[in-house]
Amino acid sequence: MTTSTTTSRALWLQGAIDIMPISIAIIPWGLLAGSLAIETGLSPLQAQCLSLLVFAGAAQLAALNLIQLASPVLAILSSTFVISSRHLLYSALYRPVALSLPRHRRYLMAFLLTDEMFAVIENYREKTGHFDYGYAIGAGFSFYLIWNIASLAGIVLGLIIGDMTELGFDFAVAALFIAMVIPSINNRPTLVAVIVSGVLMVLTQLYSVPNGLVLAAIGGMVCAFLTERCWPTAASKESPS
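Given the sequence above, the corresponding structure tokens read:
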């Protein structure tokens, strides 16, 4: 076994270990997704394929809710596209890295990339100063595996006890994102973005404003940009040497 192979496996394992706390926290969400798929009327095979092939928790729940309401296919596709559009930002960030990878590795990384994987990779990049493909795939695949095991358990429980939404598992979705966002608030623009997005999201939900998620995200980004321009941080004031 070569040294490079040993190092690659060690990084793969390190990625899987680092994402484990988030993977454990995602289990209630996976249980909810699996049981809701059964409640919607999908067969166990269809429900599991949804997690295996789509692998997008928020988009899966939104699609299942729309299917329950007998919404048109176009409405389901457009809603899931809007919810998943944040991945365009992730792809833009990792484009320089992806261009240096073989096509099959590029596709695998794109499929496994989630909010949780992104958070773990960026934390690793801040600590080490570089991106490592093996670390990223280790984190992503580990998360993918646990998500699908949780979904399978949710499918089984959905067949046995029926609707599980009353158990409060849907709160796991909000709790997980809060846990990922809080550690990243380390400057004024980020703080403003979080506060403004949160307030706008609550208001759009209270007043049933369409596409509230998109409006909240855009509002948060615009306010963060204006904050950075009008009240720059110490780092942005420094001129290049």
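The mean pLDDT is 84. Try to locate this feature in the token string yourself.
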